[in-house]
Amino acid sequence: MSQVLTVKIAAPAGLGIKSGGLLLDKILTAHGLNLKDYTEYPSLVRGGHNSFQVSFSPDPVFAVHFQVDLFFSLLGGHWQPHLTEFSKDTLVFGDEEFPELPGFGTFINLPLKQISLELNNQLVVNTICIGVIAYLYNLNRKIAQTCIQAQYGKYADVNLLAFDAGFTYAQNHLTQYAHHLSLPSKANPKSHLADGNESFGWGFIKGGGNFYAAYPMTPATGALHFLAEKQKEHNLNVYHPEDEIAVANMAAGAAFAGARSAVGTSGGGFVLMDETISFCGVTEIGMVYYLVSRPGPATGLPTWTGQGDLLHAINAGHGEFPKVVLAPGSQEESFEFSAEALNLAAILQTPVIVLSDKYLGESSSNVPDFSRQKFKVDHGLIEPKPAPSFYRYSLPAKNGISPRSIPGAPNGEFLANSYEHDQTGFATEDSTQATQMAKKRQAKLKYTQKLCPKYKLFGPKNAPNLIISWGSTAMPILESLPLLSGFSFLQIRTLWPLDPKIRLLISKYKKVYLFEANQTGQLTTLLKSQFAFSPNRQFLKYDGRPFYPEEIIGFLAKK
Question: What is the DSSP string of 441-497?
Answer without folding.
Answer: HHTHHHHHHHHSPPPEEES-TT-SEEEEE-GGGHHHHHHHGGG-SSEEEEE--EEES
